[in-house]
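Human: We require from you a protein record containing the residue sequence and its fold in token form, and nothing else.

Assistant:
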Amino acid sequence: MGKVHFVGGEKGGVGKSMTARVLAQYYIDNDQPFLGFDCDASHGTFSRFYNEFASPILIGEEDSLDGMLAAIEEYPDRDLIIDLAAQAAQPLGKWIEETDVFGLLDEMGYQVCLWHVMDDGADSVTLLDDLLDRYTQPSVDFVVVQNLGRGTDFTRFQKSETFKKAISREALIIELPKLQSKLTQKIDFNNSSFWAVANDKSIMNIAERQRMKVWLRNTYEQLEQLG
């Protein structure tokens, strides 16, 4: 069964693009074919860092969104990784409901994975609660990412009713390890893939390359839970 990953979180600055990029790198390193789509018109970091794999999509335009379904039909052997922009829930939800996207994907043999990347603030918990209430189809899987680069204490979430609701929906709850801020900034300025950061001597020094390898290893341990 193929997978369609909608990587969101609704808030800006919680690490949605970082998550989409490392998921893409995981696919690349494991020789798993995929197509990437970048819905963040204001930043476009997914398509900027992985331009060989990701194409821009405009959330507010149905023809642009329909292109993702056309891509699945044209390349049935590939999973999709979709990096959602902040505040994309309403227009994306309208498209999903009017087109019965999840029903169509189910018929085509694809598993829908809704990713919610969150910081440790109350807004992220509320937005996750809304997501769980909005999509109740049994064909939908939820992946909740506690981004340690955007929060250090997720205990309030873990004690919340929303957490219990996520567990009852069999959501996979994982952590995205914190990446050193200086290294993150250097990556941004170099427009580098994670592979290049870990291996290219002209971009990073030996200590930085090693830190990236350790971060990727720890992150991949979390992603391995996806199956």
About this structure: The chain has a mean pLDDT of 93. The domain at 2-179 is CATH 3.40.50.300 (Rossmann fold). The CA atoms of residues 35 and 80 lie 5 Å apart.
